[in-house]
Amino acid sequence: MSSLRMRHQHHTGATVIILVGEIDLASAPELDAYIGEVRQTDADQLVFDMAGVTFLDSSGLRVLLDAHTFALQHGGAIHLTALKGPPARVIEVTDAGRHIRLHTSTDIALAAVFAAPELPAPIADASGMHPLTPG
């Protein structure tokens, strides 16, 4: 049984993927397949709601970075939201936040997608705070 639960919501031009549990060597292939199944188009903006993610290892990070690369090649982007605890630390230590768009909430990420999807990766949310910095 997988240590990761996944569900999604479609919006025009964006898909929100809600993740709960651990993204590790065992669940990373499932996440990779799920992304391919639920993406509406190759240029879709993918918003990963990470609020329920308790663990992220290098294989999980690789899936997210591969999704980022694919999105860039096709005119899309990925967004990570509500990072906290060990997963936030992985993103911080690896400096992945310099490449992947980070937001404090899914609502803020969707607002960014719908307001200006062509903008470069932000270093802060509309609040002016870096998403990994405690408020």
Automatic annotation (TrEMBL):
Classification lineage: Bacteria, Bacillati, Actinomycetota, Actinomycetes, Streptosporangiales
Species: Nonomuraea rosea
Similarity remark: Belongs to the anti-sigma-factor antagonist family.
PANTHER family per record: ANTI-SIGMA FACTOR ANTAGONIST TM_1081-RELATED (PTHR33495:SF2), ANTI-SIGMA FACTOR ANTAGONIST TM_1081-RELATED-RELATED (PTHR33495)
Protein name (database record): Anti-sigma factor antagonist
PROSITE patterns (alphabetical): STAS
Family annotation (InterPro entries): Anti-sigma_ant, STAS_dom, STAS_dom_sf
Domain STAS: residue ranges: 4-113
SUPFAM superfamilies registered for this protein in UniProt: SpoIIaa-like
NCBIfam families: ant_ant_sig (TIGR00377)
